[in-house]
From TrEMBL:
Protein name: RTA1 domain protein
Cell compartment(s), UniProt: Membrane
Entry-linked PANTHER family: PROTEIN RTA1-RELATED (PTHR31465), RTA1 DOMAIN PROTEIN-RELATED (PTHR31465:SF13)
Record keywords, A-Z: Membrane, Transmembrane, Transmembrane helix
Membrane topology designation: Multi-pass membrane protein
Length: 282
């Protein structure tokens, strides 16, 4: 779309579409990372600081807000045919979206690192788990770099004031030179696409989210999966189930303990040995 716009720079619709697509794409990659982390937490449930399903619903809900801000902000700010007041609203929406996006990525990485640290302390990091975590970190880092670039760029654009005696050379180089876009936007997003395809999560995680890694770190077990009977809205606003922690309700979700205590022989029958990151049936 950007290439088409280079030859039809008088068409405002192409320009608006290009801007919207550029700002809308990264949150979808973030959404993929939320799903990946959720699957990782399902895989090692006893070290998960949050219900695995809440990763997607909580971060996804916030990202939905960011997408709405991105879409409306990009369309308003790039349309010179609407009143200046609406263009300013669009610029403010984009600023808010970019800042919120940085906060989301930071919070997401903190959650992933906290989980990783708990696994490390428990000496529970088989090759497949390390591989998918490193892939997640790399993808999140790429999106973070891109978002920082976009934030700096857009705040630089918003600071431009054209008037008598305006010197174009006073504009930030990040705006004047397009190579910034190709390196920190296009190249980074392509790299992220290649990364997630080359190191696809399916290579490192079981197909079912009911399969979890036993606490010995070398076997996989088919379990009943997580259950959360709370109201959907409650799970979004209290993803960590802090009330449940206080009341002791979280203990009811420790199915990996109950399953082994109830029928250890049946549990052994469902075990799968993990070697070199690849599960092998016993």
């Amino acid at each position: 779309m950007r290439e088409i716009g280079a030859y039809h720079y008088g068409d405002v619709n192409i320009f608006i579409s290009s801007i919207c697509l550029v700002y809308a794409a990264p949150p979808f990659y973030e959404l993929a990372n939320y799903i990946i982390l959720g699957r990782i937490l399902y895989y090692v449930p006893y070290h998960s600081p949050i219900h695995p399903g809440r990763v997607l619903t909580t971060f996804g809900a916030i990202s939905g807000i960011v997408e709405a801000l991105n879409g409306n902000g990009a369309s308003y700010s790039s349309n010179a045919n609407i009143p200046e007041s609406k263009q300013q609203i669009g610029r403010d929406l984009l600023k808010a979206a970019l800042v919120i996006q940085l906060g989301i990525i930071t919070s997401f990485l903190m959650l992933a690192v906290y989980f990783h640290r708990r696994c490390y302390k428990a000496n529970l990091l088989p090759d497949n788990l390390k591989a998918i975590l490193y892939t997640l970190y790399a993808s999140s880092a790429l999106i973070m770099v891109r978002t920082i670039y976009r934030t700096v760029e857009y705040f630089s654009v918003a600071a431009i004031r054209v008037g008598p005696g305006f010197d174009p050379m006073s504009i930030s180089p990040i705006i004047r030179y397009e190579w910034f876009f190709w390196v920190f936007e296009a190249l980074i997003m392509i790299t992220n696409s290649v990364l997630l395809n080359f190191r696809h999560p399916a290579r490192f995680l079981p197909s079912s989210n009911k399969v979890y890694l036993a606490e010995d770190g070398v076997t996989e077990v088919m379990g009943p999966g997580f259950a959360d009977k709370r109201n959907f809205l409650v799970t979004i606003f209290d993803p960590f189930d802090l009330i449940g922690l206080i009341r002791g309700r979280d203990k009811k979700n420790r199915y990996w303990e109950e399953q082994e205590e109830a029928n250890p022989s049946a549990l052994r029958d469902e075990m799968v040995t993990v070697q070199g990151g690849k599960p092998l049936k016993n």
